[in-house]
TrEMBL record:
PROSITE patterns associated with the record: ABC_TRANSPORTER_1, ABC_TRANSPORTER_2
Keyword DNA repair: no
Keyword presence, Nucleotide-binding: yes
Lineage: Bacteria, Pseudomonadati, Pseudomonadota, Alphaproteobacteria, Sphingomonadales
Identification of the protein by name: ABC transporter ATP-binding protein
UniProt entry keywords in alphabetical sequence: ATP-binding, Nucleotide-binding, Transport
PANTHER family: ABC TRANSPORTER ATP-BINDING PROTEIN (PTHR42711)
Single GO MF descriptor: ATP binding
Domain ABC transporter: 5-234
Matches recorded under InterPro entries: AAA+_ATPase (IPR003593), ABC_transporter-like_ATP-bd (IPR003439), ABC_transporter-like_CS (IPR017871), ABC_transporter_ATP-binding (IPR050763), P-loop_NTPase (IPR027417)
Database matches in Gene3D superfamilies: P-loop containing nucleotide triphosphate hydrolases
Length: 313
């Protein structure tokens, strides 16, 4: 299937010599939720700004639903809605006037019924005649989304959509994103909140220091790279781990009351049976076993640390 967004060989080096973005290749399918995950300063906003025509790339091509974003910037931009990190609204305007104005900027007149629907979906209908300065921080964030959706884009970019908002509002935003996807909108979000990507995304891209480290289906990524941990609750607390257990690389937690073993669940041999036998031989009694899989955060940290080690070698 033809991707709705194709990024080929895109990079960005500023006049100062700072290389903000290394060569990036990326394709996004219509209707998917894609999370671009990385720490602050990793290059997430630079990549989005290039795709949206705000920043000029140093190299590469961008195709948005069949339109060359560099040769046909207006046609490409019509397909895109952007919700920036920073508030960019007239605080003295009303919610309704701001949203309608954003629609007209893209040459789309009228269609008040669509604007009304957007405001209702975003729980802004009751605030439609309020000035933006009168709204809470969470409501102002919703106004940014309403502005981005006003011209009926096929692709919605959310740049750190829940930065600085409380947990309850963050979950409301997640629900909203899923509803938008159900209506056919392709959604690309940048975030440094691991749980945001884990909760919403179909695929995850990991970016660090301007380099796109990988792009993977979320479930496949966690299956391929995720490790499992087994916690062994001891009957008697342990001060140090016996040398006879060195091959399992165990760690002590909970003030010596638990042994933690990290293993690859996909490996042919996990090492669990031999570990439990060795504990028996050493007379180390335990009362409970508990296993859990790695989170996306664990995977992300592993990837970044591994790449840093490779570059330092």
């Amino acid at each position: 299937m033809q991707p709705i967004l194709s990024v080929r060989g895109v990079s960005k080096t500023y006049a100062s010599g700072h290389r903000a973005l290394k060569t990036v290749d990326l394709e996004i399918a219509k209707g998917e939720i894609f999370a671009l995950l990385g720490p602050n300063g990793a290059g997430k906003t630079t990549l989005i700004s290039i795709i949206c025509g705000i920043v000029t790339p140093s190299s590469g091509t961008i195709t948005v639903d069949g339109h060359d974003a560099i040769a046909e910037p207006r046609a490409a931009r019509m397909k895109i809605g952007l919700v920036p990190q920073e508030l960019s609204v007239d605080m003295f305007e009303t919610v309704l006037a701001t949203t309608r104005y954003s629609r007209r900027l893209f040459g789309r007149a009228g269609h008040d019924a669509y604007i009304d629907e957007v405001l209702r979906d975003l729980s802004l209908w009751d605030k439609r005649n309020s000035k933006i300065m009168e709204l809470s921080g969470g409501m102002k964030r919703r106004v940014l989304i309403a502005k981005a959706l006003a011209h009926e884009p096929d692709i919605l970019f959310l740049d750190e959509p829940t930065a600085g908002v409380d947990v309850s509002l963050r979950r409301d935003m997640w629900k909203l994103v899923k509803r938008l996807r159900e209506k056919g909108t392709t959604i690309i979000l940048t975030t440094h909140y691991i749980e945001e990507a884990e909760e919403m995304a179909d695929r995850v891209g990991v970016i660090n220091k301007g380099e796109l480290l990988l792009v993977e289906d979320k479930a496949a990524l966690m299956k391929k790279l995720g490790k499992r941990e087994m916690d062994i609750a001891l009957v008697e607390p342990m001060a140090t781990i016996p040398a006879e257990l060195d091959e399992w690389h165990l760690t002590l937690t909970d003030e010596g009351e638990r042994l933690r073993y990290t293993f690859d669940a996909q490996a042919e041999r996990t090492g669990i049976p031999s570990l439990l036998r060795k504990l028996g031989e050493l007379g180390i009694a335990f009362k409970d076993l508990d296993t859990s899989k790695s989170s996306l955060e664990d995977i992300f940290v592993d990837l970044v640390e591994r790449r840093d080690e490779e570059q330092a070698a």
